[in-house]
Amino acid sequence: MRKWWPLVAVCLGTFMFLLDTTVLSVALPEIGEGLSAPLPALQWVANVYTLVLAVLMLMMGALADRFGARTVYVAGLMVFGVASLACGSAPNAGALVAARAAQGVGGAAMAVTTFALIGSCYRGPDMGRAMGVFGAVSGLAAAVGPMLGGALTQYLGWRSVFFLNLPLVAVTVALTLRVLAPGRQGTGTRIDLPGMVVFALCAGSLTYALTSAGEVGWASPAVLGPLALAALALAVFARVELRSPAPLLDVALFGRAAFSAVMMCVVASTAAFAALVYTSVWLQSGLGLGPARAGLALMPLALASFATSLISGRRLHGRSPRAVLATGLLLSGIGCALQAGLDAGASAVSLAPGLALTGVGVGLLGPAMGAAVFAALPPERGGMAAGAMTTFRQLGQTLGVAVLGVLFQQGGGAMTEGLDRVLIAAAAAGIIGSVLAYVFVPRPAAANAPAPARRDLTDSR
């Protein structure tokens, strides 16, 4: 039993990190009421966390290489805990957004080190068992997030969603220091600080413009200015990365059609989760459900995703990632389409079949996404592929919430009509992503997929 304590320490941190990406969706309406925050402010409460994750993932990988995975993991846990306390104590929406950004810093450090820590402790069959447990915990976090968030919000208040992290952080830090060895530290890893700053400026400006567009319109200087800044920053980022000896992201890789298509598939895979923010708003503000009942209404997606990921991880191992990825995206898109078509008589039950089908699609995507990314590049670029995948997943979630927010508010119509537009857009993203996957994702050699996957988020080069 003693040999599995390191896995427990890693899984506890992973559970917290992933829980905070899903648990908040049900709590947002109560946060808006409690802090008198409008919808754009609530979008930032959700967006800033994933935005910071997207910006810092690659840099945190470099820090883990330099200072050791355990050091970065523990530091991330401590930052995450302090930020959670600040979130739960926030007096207004601005303070909450700032604290959520700090949470993202800690979350990025926690996320990039998990695979390295598991890889340092387990080999052979034990590695397979450890990764199976790790995958199950990841699915469990997604499954219980909406329900746990709803129950905590309704019975203890939305602040308890953040305060819950405090004892978990304390236990995880103590356990990590006791059961995980410090590991080796490197000295030669360089951090591409200019690239990180310009990428942050691009992603932040674009997110701000899209978030503002639903409220002030596309022609407003508050939208056009940040859009222009984002375009300029993107051009500068490409130039900086092409000249950097140790780039965050080798932009020349986007000259490969397969790699570009897979990155688009990664972004498309986040649309269904981004739509949940507005589904939750409709369930609570439109139908008048409490947070707990709203969380329960979203459970078909989470449970279907959890069950499918457990089954597909074993039965689809070694299958072509092209077929699995295309099928997962297609089912996710069709599931979103089935949720659309809401009318004045719609209820939470109306969403259940579509949510369940979307969950099956999402469950298929997890095991296939990494294999598809690694199939698009040579094995020696595995670290770069993993970092790009993680960054685009978080950035896709952030931009998805912003873009779908514009559709949700468009025309000032009824809330049901706004949710319909959101679900149709999410369905289109899934279906288009499915076509891209089927056409462009190559069939990898079976031996190429597993090895880079174990490096996953730990190599930023």
What is the architecture of the largest domain at the second tier of CATH?
Up-down Bundle
Give the name of the CATH superfamily of the largest domain: MFS general substrate transporter like domains
Low-confidence stretches: 446-461
Beta-strand portion reads under 5%
Tell me about the largest β-sheet.
none
Subcellular location: Cell membrane
Transmembrane segments: 41-64, 71-91, 97-118, 130-149, 161-181, 193-210, 216-237, 257-278, 290-311, 323-342, 354-377, 398-416, 422-441
Domain Major facilitator superfamily (MFS) profile: 6-445
Membrane topology: Multi-pass membrane protein
Task: Report on the architecture of this protein.
This protein folds into three domains: 185 residues, MFS general substrate transporter like domains (Growth Hormone, Chain: A); 53 residues; 210 residues, MFS general substrate transporter like domains (Growth Hormone, Chain: A, Up-down Bundle). The chain is 79% helix and 0% strand. The radius of gyration is 21 Å and the shape is globular. With 461 residues, the chain is mostly helical.
Kindly summarize this structure in a few lines.
The protein has 19 helices and no strands.
Secondary structure elements and pairings:
Layout: H1 5-22, H2 24-35, H3 39-67, H4 69-88, H5 93-121, H6 124-156, H7 160-163, H8 165-179, H9 193-216, H10 221-243, H11 257-268, H12 271-286, H13 291-297, H14 299-315, H15 321-339, H16 348-375, H17 382-409, H18 415-440, H19 450-455
Helix pairs in contact: 1-5, 1-6, 1-8, 2-3, 2-6, 2-12, 2-13, 3-4, 3-5, 3-9, 3-17, 4-5, 4-8, 6-13, 6-14, 9-10, 9-17, 11-17, 11-18, 12-17, 12-18, 14-16, 15-16, 15-18, 16-17, 17-18
